[in-house]
Please model this.
Amino acid sequence: MDQGIGSVTAGVDGSRAGQDAAAWAAREARRRKLPLRLLHAGTDSVPERAAEELACAYPQVEITVIRARSPAAKALLTASSGTGLLVLGTRGFTGFAGFPVGSVALAAAARASCPVVLVRSGERSEDERDAVPGAPPDEAPYLPVVLGVDLERPAGALVGQAFCTAAVRPAPLHVVHTWTPLCPDRGAPAGPACCAETAAEEDTRRHLLAVWLRPWRRRFPGTAVETEVVPGRPVQQLLRTCARAGLLVVGRRSGSGRGLGEVAHSLIHHATCPVAVVPYD
Model:
C-alpha cells in the first residue's frame, strides 16, 4: 500500500504553518504505518519541541529529528531523495481562496525527487473529513482525494500516489480530466457542429480514461472511484472540484529545468486543501 515509501518527512521551522504541516505529516505517517522525520535547518530547539508535541498527539508514530547543516532549500531537496513523501507548510490568507507559498516551498515542489505535499497554515485534522452532525470529528468519513490527469501524458507514478493516498484513509477518489476544445471562432457562440465535435471528443476521452484506470481499480478494489471528463480550463475545473476535498493530487514533469508548470503553480497558490505535487517521467 505504501508504494515503496520508507518514511514521511516534514520540514519544521518554528512557524505555525510548519507546525500544522508537521501534524498533517504525522497523521499521514500514522495512516501509512511509517516513521516520521522532522527536518530542521538550524541549531535551536524547534524540532525537539515539535517532536514532543507530536509524540503526545500521535503516540503510534515513530518520530526522528534530523538537523541539516545546509540551507533549508538545499536540505529539503537532499532529503527528498531519501524519503517517500515531503510535507511543507505555507502561510494562509484568512477568508481568501488563495495562499502565499514561500520560495523554499516552491523550489521543493518544483525540484524534489519525491512527492511534495503543501499544507496551508490552519489546516486541522477535521478538515480532512466530511463532518457528520452529532458524530465525533475523528469518526466522520474522509473527504475525497482529487486527482487531476492529462491523458496526453499518462503517468503511473501520479495515479499510483493518488490511489494509495485514498486507500490508506480510506477515502473516495475523484479523477478529473479536462481539455480545451479546438473549435474555430472562439469568440463566437458555439454552433451545432462545434458542440457535436466536443461531445464526441468527450466520449472518446471518457473511454480512454476508463481504460487507463482499469488496472488501478483492480489493484485497489476497496477504493470508490468517480471520474469526471469535462471541457474547460484545468485550473478552474480542478479548483471547483477540490473545494470539498481532503487533498488535491497533481503531477509535474521531472527533469532538469522543467519546473512546476502553469497548472500546478496556479493550483498550489489557490487550492483551499493540501496539494500533493508528484514528479513523473
Notes: The chain is about 35% helix and 20% strand. The domain at 1-123 is CATH 3.40.50.12370 (Rossmann fold). Residues 160 and 216 are 8 Å apart (CA to CA). The radius of gyration is 19 Å.
